[in-house]
Amino acid sequence: xxxxxxxxxxxxxxxxxxxxxxxxxxxxxxxxxxxxxxxxxxxxxxxxxxxxxxxxxxxxxxxxxxxxxxxxxxxxxxxxxxxxxxxxxxxxxxxxxxxxxxxxxxxxxxxxxxxxxxxxxxxxxxxxxxxxxxxxxxxxxxxxxxxxxxxxxxxxxxxxxxxxxxxxxxxxxxxxxxxxxxxxxxxxxxxxxxxxxxxxxxxxxxxxxxxxxxxxxxxxxxxxxxxxxxxxxxxxxxxxxxxxxxxxxxxxxxxxxxxxxxxxxxxxxxxxxxxxxxxxxxxxxxxxxxxxxxxxxxxxxxxxxxxxxxxxxxxxxxxxxxxxxxxxxxxxxxxxxxxxxxxxxxxxxxxxxxxxxxx
Length: 359
Fold this sequence. Notes:
alpha/beta, Quinone Oxidoreductase, Chain A, domain 1, Rossmann fold, 7-stranded mixed sheet, 6-stranded parallel sheet, 11 helices, globular
């Protein structure tokens, strides 16, 4: 067992506690990663606040990057010393979804006991398969992707969730074609990356919808051609005016129910709503099915951008190195682990694209 410092959630809705926890060595198929950075995602915050339930005590955090410092047996593709990005996507590679190219939907059950315990040896939940609000983690080898040795790991951490979720929703879930029109509802961390994905895919018009003029201005820096305030009366009318028609794809990147209920209003006939943002458990939205059926429209969920990380992350890294995918600009501020509660509070204000914990 190795002692590491971690931010532990002992009660939903309460500040995280900085504690010394025990981390076991990696076993077969696992790698230990000493982290340099872990970005704070709104999914972490929703879990910490009790929005999706779960078991406590737990260590959250799932957008991480660092160096491999130990490996178990039968590990391939990475070695001690390699820089890696760490994702929550744990895939067995053999179940039906994995075998059909959908590792984000892996059906293999997780181990009952994870690799971390408290100072007394009682098990802690390794939340979201990572538990990356900690100095070191042990994860399955399927969760990591090797990075170029000269890549900044603070920058790389945002690839682990926000970037692959946003860009992947466009290229994998919507399969957007060049010349199509897009609406992105929410210009936060994931929304900005959906905008980038639409730009890279060759969208004709990319309309950002948000509550803030400041965030709409940032959206245009990432590739939005137009911005519409969500506070307008029937904002879909302004979006359609900007496009000259309805959208081929609408990406809902926030968990707000009004955004979900309004999303079909932006669509052209045959268009599709891609559901990315996650409301709290129990929240419900209402639709008129006849309208979707009569116009050939659809709605589809997209988990983690439907990515295959071994394929998609190296592609995105290459785009970044070409200057075609913005990553540095996504990092609003870095914080030490001891100030994680302040970083979470800042993230909740909505002003930050991504706050990153640096070890």
